[in-house]
Structures are given as structure tokens and as C-alpha cells.
Amino acid sequence: MFVISLILSSFLLISPLATAGNEEDFSFVNEKTWPNVIKQGDNREKTTFWVDPDSLAVSYIDTKLAAKALRLRLREDLRNGIISFDQVKKDFTDQLVKEIIPHWYGTPWSFGGHTSVPNQGEIACGYFISTTLRDMDMKLNRYTLAQKSPIDEAKMISCGSDILSVVQETPEKAFEEIDRLTQEGLYFIGFDEGHVGYLLKRDGELFLIHSNYFSPVSVCMEKLEESRVFNRFTSFHLVDISHNEALLKRWLENGAIL
Fold first, then answer.
1. Which first-to-last residue range defines the signal peptide (predicted)?
2. Is-contact 25 46, C-beta < 8 A?
3. Once rounded to an integer, what is the mean pLDDT over residues 252-258?
């Protein structure tokens, strides 16, 4: 994955259940209180990750097995007319955002990181996307996907659906356009030729979930407009994941993501 090469004086590494106390503070909160931002005594804000603590008590192997079981159950229920496709969209998004991704928070970033196990080794931005999608039981080659440019990665994930291009003069204008173009749910976001991540819109707010090469130098969730990475770019590629019927149908039928 192409990414801006940085010289970092120190790495701030956090575990999934710990908080950091230097430049920024991070904590996991129950989903019932998300997305509250907790004020600190020195007026700093503690970034909150949308996590159900119970999900972290389940092993990652079991979480991946649950994703496979979900796919099979939804496919069967849809074929039998028990559920609508809207239920597929919701359950897929919830499984990825609430169950798969939370295990990865705190996993250290590195340019060449490609671990397949959360918090064991390091993970680059592209591999974070490809690995979490694969672990949702999507049929794809995580190496092939991760090593593509942001626009080519967007094309693969889109499965032929629309790719939204945002090109603006400033990050502020880009944020406004992204907010206008998106609906509630999860998206892939490519940053020009330099970075990739997930974009989550929940309760009208935009969040970036990515393997962050700035502090905390790990997988994290942060408000999009406050992200240092986001504010370095003015060109973006967006692909809807939550409402992408072509992608989700391919997932249901275990078709390859090419």
C-alpha cells in the first residue's frame, strides 16, 4: 500500500484495553454511550472507539466463525423470503463494525505490516482493510487487494458500483462534500494515492477507521474532520459498503471479489 513515508521520533502503542496519556488519550466505551467525547481535566478530548466490551471477550477465531455463520444464515433466510435485503445490509455492517474491527484497535501501524492476527505484529492501512474484509468471510486475496493503489482498491471493492470522487481545494470543502454525498453506514475511503481506510457515518457524524501512521500509530477510530491524515488530502475515492448490493450479493454467494 502506498503511504507517505514518515520519520517518527517515537511510537505510541496502545493495547485494546488500555489508554494512552501522551499526545492523545484513547478509550473504549460501551456502544450505549458512543459516540460521546469525554473531556479531560486539561481540556484535551479522549477519542472514543465504538466498542461493545462483550465483543472483545470473544476470541478472534470465534468472531471470524460467527461472520461465516452469519453469511450462511442470511443467505438462507433471504432465499426463503424470511428477511429483506435491508436486513443483510444492517447485519453485515454491524458484524464488521461492532465485532470484527474492534479486535484490531491498538494494533500497531507499519509501512510493511501485514499481520493477520489483531495485536500480534503490525498492520499497514491496505492490509487492515483487506484482512478485515476477508475475515468477514469475503472471498478475496488480501495481499492482492492491499497492494493496489487506493483507486484500484476502490474499483475492486465496488464490484462495479459507483465510485464517488471528491476533489476540492481544501480539506474543509472536501469534508462538506463527503458529508453531503454519504448516508448512514460504512464506506471504503481512498486518499488520493496515499492512504486507505473505512469511513463510518453514524448518527450524522463522520468517523475514520484506519491504521493510522500518525499518533497513535495504530488502528484507531477518530472524527474525520479532526484526523491529521484526512487534513493532508483534498482528493478522495469513496465506495459504499453498507448499501452496495453488488458487493453484498457476491459475499452472500461466496463469489470472489476481483
1. 1-20
2. yes
3. 93
